[in-house]
Write a structure and sequence with these properties.
Elements: E1 2-8, H1 13-24, E2 28-30, E3 34-39, H2 42-50, E4 54-65, H3 69-77, E5 90-98, H4 105-124, E6 129-130, E7 137-144, E8 147-153, H5 175-185, E9 193-195, H6 202-212, H7 233-243, E10 254-258, H8 261-273, E11 280-284, E12 301-305, H9 315-331, E13 336-342, H10 345-355, E14 358-367, E15 370-379
Parallel strand pairs: 5-6, 5-7, 9-10, 9-12, 10-11, 12-13
Antiparallel strand pairs: 1-3, 1-4, 2-3, 4-8, 7-8, 13-15, 14-15
Helix pairs in contact: 2-7, 3-4, 5-6, 9-10
Length: about 375
């Protein structure tokens, strides 16, 4: 068994933990913006291929308390790196630091990098080369208050960068956040799904990819683990083959409505690039007049990234928009779960009260550097 850490959406750690528990059948612990678990090395392949709520998966090499930079050097130097790095490979250390310390993140990266070089030279007589731009092996040093974690990046670029987007919406939702929203609401693939303000199509596209169980290397991604000394190509191939659905029996009922012709065309381009153009119906329309466009479609699950202008001049516009949208939604469904994201929390809560929708729960999460609220409600 090996120790792992995965980074994810801050605020949705529990949702990401549940996803990994289902993928691996292990117990997962939640931290701040990350989750921890123990598993076999095949977890590297399973989580990277299907961890839709995950950003990066790290193999933890050291997790301990420290008092000084010298402690970090000693703890790193005690690690045997021979099973991770070949003598002819390059490496880099990235560092993240939280809390008050008499040193910087660059100091941490420098100290850890020197310790790796010294450890490897002591055990092999070889001096490893550093390549900060394009290393074969990427190590991460996480310092949070008095805790030090040294971990190996098995993913490479963040998994939320799926690779299918050919049209970039100016307020695009992170794919990982879209998947967290779907999981948080409890959506399952046979439920008719609606995104009434779909923008560039992220939520409908991710839902369709879930139904088809498309692995996250489907769009040209190269995983970092393939360069690692511990990479087992046979195990990877077997794992990947076991995860790919040979026959998708569920025909998804997924609709995306968008008021902007430009964004709607962009959403269609993204869906085509993702290979799900036939699985999502995109409609040009106004979310406050849904009954005009959804004649033969009754959504049972609604997921939406709401507009949330923060300028004071837009307050009344926002209040009216939220209310009219909720009234419109009631007209096209008998009963549905609504998962809605906004940074204008109070305006949306007020709209819910006015229209009379029942709120099941809410979560404060981070979308990049912006704190937003995800609501879960019952539409009746």
């Amino acid at each position: 068994m090996f120790s792992f850490m995965a980074t994810t959406i801050t605020g949705f750690e529990d949702v990401s933990a549940k996803e990994v528990e289902e993928l691996l059948g292990v117990k997962v612990r939640c931290g701040y913006g990350r989750i921890f678990f123990e598993s076999g090395l095949d977890a590297i392949y399973r989580v990277n291929l299907l961890g839709r709520c995950i950003h990066k998966l790290f193999l933890v090499l050291e997790k301990t308390k420290f008092q000084s930079l010298n402690d970090i050097y000693k703890q790193t130097k005690n690690i045997d790196f021979r099973w991770i790095i070949n003598p002819n490979q390059t490496f880099a250390v990235r560092a993240e630091r939280y809390g008050e310390h008499p040193f910087t993140s660059m100091d941490v990266a420098s100290k850890v990098g020197q310790a790796v070089i010294d450890s490897y030279k002591d055990s092999t007589g070889k001096r490893l080369k550093v390549n900060l731009k394009n290393p074969d092996v990427e190590l991460y040093a996480f310092v949070r208050f008095d805790e030090f974690i040294l971990a190996l990046n098995t993913t490479g670029e963040s998994l939320h960068r799926r690779g299918y987007r050919v049209y970039q919406h100016p307020a695009a939702l992170k794919t990982s956040l879209a998947c967290c929203m779907l999981r948080y609401g409890g959506w399952f693939s046979s439920q008719p799904l609606l995104d009434p303000m779909c923008g560039g199509g992220t939520i409908p596209i991710e839902a369709a990819l879930i139904v088809k169980q498309k692995t996250l290397d489907s769009f040209g991604r190269e995983f970092a683990f393939k360069k690692l000394k511990l990479f087992d190509e046979n195990l990877y191939t077997k794992t990947r083959e076991s995860l790919i659905l040979k026959d998708v029996k569920v025909k998804p009922k997924i609709f995306g409505v968008e008021v902007s012709p430009k964004h709607l065309e962009g959403a269609k381009l993204n869906a085509s690039s993702a290979g799900v153009a036939e699985d999502v119906v995109f409609v040009l329309g106004d979310a406050t007049k849904l009954s005009k466009y959804l004649k033969d479609f009754k959504p049972e699950f609604v997921a939406v990234n709401l507009p949330y202008g923060i300028r004071s001049s837009r307050k009344k516009v926002l209040e009216r928009l939220y209310k009219e949208f909720l009234v419109s939604l009631r007209d096209v469904t008998d009963k549905a779960i609504l998962v809605a994201l906004t940074s204008a929390k109070e305006y949306f809560k007020k709209a819910l009260e006015v229209v009379g929708f029942g709120e099941i729960g809410e979560k404060e999460v981070m979308h990049g550097n912006l704190k937003v609220t995800v609501f879960k409600c019952v539409v009746e």
